[in-house]
Automatic annotation (TrEMBL):
It comes from Thioalkalivibrio halophilus. It is found in: Cell membrane. GO terms for biological process: choline transport; glycine betaine transport. It comes from the Bacteria. GO terms for molecular function: amine transmembrane transporter activity; carnitine transmembrane transporter activity. SUPFAM superfamilies: MetI-like. This is ABC transporter permease. CDD domains: TM_PBP2. Gene3D superfamilies: MetI-like. PANTHER family: GLYCINE BETAINE/PROLINE BETAINE TRANSPORT SYSTEM PERMEASE PROTEIN PROW (PTHR47737), GLYCINE BETAINE_PROLINE BETAINE TRANSPORT SYSTEM PERMEASE PROTEIN PROW (PTHR47737:SF1). The chain crosses the membrane at residues 70-88, 94-111, 118-137, 143-160, 167-190, 210-236, 290-313, 319-338. The keyword Transmembrane helix applies. GO terms for cellular component: ATP-binding cassette (ABC) transporter complex.
Amino acid sequence: MTQDEPDIQDHETVGPVESLAEWFSETVLEPITIGDWIEDGVDWISDNLEGLLDGIEAVIRALVDATEFLLLYPLWLTAFLIAAGVWMRFGHKIGAITTGALLVAFGLGVFSETVQALLWFPPPWVLAVLIVLGGIWRVGWRFGLFAAVALLLIFSMELWPETIRTLSLVVASSIAALIIGLPIGIAMSRNDTVEMLVRPVLDLMQTMPPFVYLIPAAIFFGLGTVPGAIATLIFAMPPAVRLTNLGIRQVSREHVEAGQAFGCTPRQLLFKIQLPLALPSIMAGINQTIMLALSMVVIASMIGAGGLGGTVLTGIQRLQVGVGFEGGLAVVFLAILLDRISQSFGQRRREGNAYGNLLRWFFSGRQKADA
């Protein structure tokens, strides 16, 4: 470089564009401190909404504890499901008789040590047998065989307590997400303004990295099971909302007009026509919610949620490949079991329909013969 050539680095020109950019940066961009706003909001919530946070924590903790109790004592859950199913399908009289019979059977626990042991000190294999039977009933014997092999491997890896903790968190978080999400989806389907307002929030929730949900959960609720469940239910809620809204909106106009022609009120139209026809879409949303809950529960082990995610995290922290692989394999088995069983409730059971048709054909044939 000669002495006559100007130094480009030392030469500064301040034109109108640079002046405008400097003014825009000082007056518009610098006052926008999103991080500071978030911190101020968190401080305000912690100082002024402590009672609300304590109430949310108590509700979530009670839900998780109740779910874990039912999984540890599965015969109580089985009896409740049998009674509820008979009550809904066969009416009040047969339901009352079934409930009374179950109460008598449970009352035998006072006199029988075997029944008392099964009710209050059930071995771990009781729940495993119920899961296998549920898989055979809902999916088929091949899936039941797979479920038996998968659960035996989980027992052999000595990860059954962690599996129960993970399953209880998934079920509790999914129930809470559905209690909140399904009414929002119904409201979105019935009002375009609600859909316009809720859709950006769902987009934000689904595009937010999962680890981000752990920060406010840990700040507001500390470490442990409750913040993990809260972060999980928020992360897993959007599919239930979206697919409920989509399923109801996809109900054909002919069905809606037919219901209106027969004098259905808006509530009857919703519960008698729209929700039954939208059930496959809603069940798909429930299935996706359960799957997202399982993935988030594993991540939530970073804030003390425990379960199989804690096993995987321990393997990562200590560089124990075997431990991490066992935890990951148990998560895969649990995911397949939850996915196939929950998915079966949204599908028509061909084998069950075939058996029902066979029985109807048999008895109708006998009636014709008697006539």
